[in-house]
């Protein structure tokens, strides 16, 4: 018994015709007929009833058909497994991350991945979350560490690493030093220090403000500079609570802005075996955070 005989048998059954089956498998019709006859002789029973205008299964053929399909399915699964492994040997994965993120050690994740799959080419780029999200949706990135506020970005699957309230971080010289909280309305009366539009933190602030616009006096591209400006007494810095260092954190209320940090990839799934392997490793790492 040969796999091609089972393939021809299944094709004839599904097409209902030797002619259409021959076109499907790109083999001459006499060749298909001969191979199925050989299979029938080996099994000692007819599998197909050829007496009518269309080809139908005999009782034995109906019993054999599920096993033939299962055998062909197993071969296809083995082929896909080999292709997956070959993809991991020759593959590439494109990764993005938000600027200056200290919550998740993405370099450590990439190092672990490289140790497991040393032949996969890895590229990493930093950008604001809006650029990363667009690049994921457009297929320019396979995987990214993003920040966002509100609902999950459309077209993406995410695994949330952190969901944090924003705070107004101030120096000891600031009039809010020592306060526990400040309502959003009062916050909007101050000139603020913030990351630029397109970042998860700024998106969370803008979402909380709704139609109102916060007055941004100083805008810096990375959290360390935002912190430094606030330490110099230049105003409240809008930060996630875990980012505050050397400053006093004042909770923002009414409402409380929240920012999320998450792994993200295209919702329909990454196309390369390398990207799927990296996502699997990342999801395992999430459970240990």
From TrEMBL:
Q: Gene3D superfamilies, from UniProt?
A: 3.40.190.290, Winged helix-like DNA-binding domain superfamily/Winged helix DNA-binding domain (1.10.10.10)
Q: SUPFAM superfamilies given for it?
A: Periplasmic binding protein-like II, Winged helix' DNA-binding domain
- Keywords in UniProt for this one? DNA-binding, Transcription, Transcription regulation
HTH lysR-type domain: residues covered: 1-58
Q: Name residues in a coiled coil.
A: none
Q: Where are the transmembrane segments?
A: none
User: Any keyword Cell membrane?
Assistant: no
Q: Which protein family is it in?
A: Belongs to the LysR transcriptional regulatory family.
Q: Supply the name of the protein.
A: LysR family transcriptional regulator
Organism for this UniProt entry: Lentzea cavernae
């Amino acid at each position: 018994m040969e796999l091609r005989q089972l393939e021809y048998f299944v094709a004839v059954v599904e097409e209902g015709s030797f002619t259409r089956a021959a076109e499907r498998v790109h083999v001459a019709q006499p060749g298909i007929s001969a191979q199925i006859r050989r299979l029938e002789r080996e099994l000692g029973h007819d599998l197909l009833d050829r007496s009518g205008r269309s080809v139908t299964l005999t009782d034995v053929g109906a019993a054999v058909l599920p096993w033939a399909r299962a055998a062909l399915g197993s071969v296809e699964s083995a082929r896909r497994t080999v292709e997956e492994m070959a993809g991991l040997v020759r593959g590439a994965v494109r990764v993005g991350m938000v600027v200056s993120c200290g919550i998740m050690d993405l370099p450590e994740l990439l190092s672990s991945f490289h140790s497991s799959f040393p032949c996969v080419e890895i590229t990493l780029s930093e950008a604001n979350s809006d650029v990363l999200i667009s690049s994921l949706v457009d297929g320019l990135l396979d995987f990214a560490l993003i920040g966002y506020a509100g609902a999950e970005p459309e077209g993406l699957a995410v695994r949330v690493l952190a969901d944090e309230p924003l705070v107004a971080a101030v120096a000891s010289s600031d009039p809010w030093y020592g306060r526990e909280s400040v309502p959003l309305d009062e916050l909007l009366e101050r000139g603020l220090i913030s990351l630029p539009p397109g970042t998860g933190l700024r998106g969370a602030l803008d979402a909380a403000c709704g139609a109102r616009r916060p007055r941004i006096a100083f805008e810096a591209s990375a959290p360390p500079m935002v912190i430094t400006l606030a330490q110099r007494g230049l105003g409240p810095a809008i930060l996630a609570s875990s980012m505050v260092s050397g400053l006093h954190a004042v909770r923002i209320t009414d409402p409380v802005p929240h920012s999320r940090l998450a792994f993200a990839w295209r919702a329909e799934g990454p196309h390369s075996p390398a990207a799927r392997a990296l996502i699997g490793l990342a999801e395992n790492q999430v459970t240990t955070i």
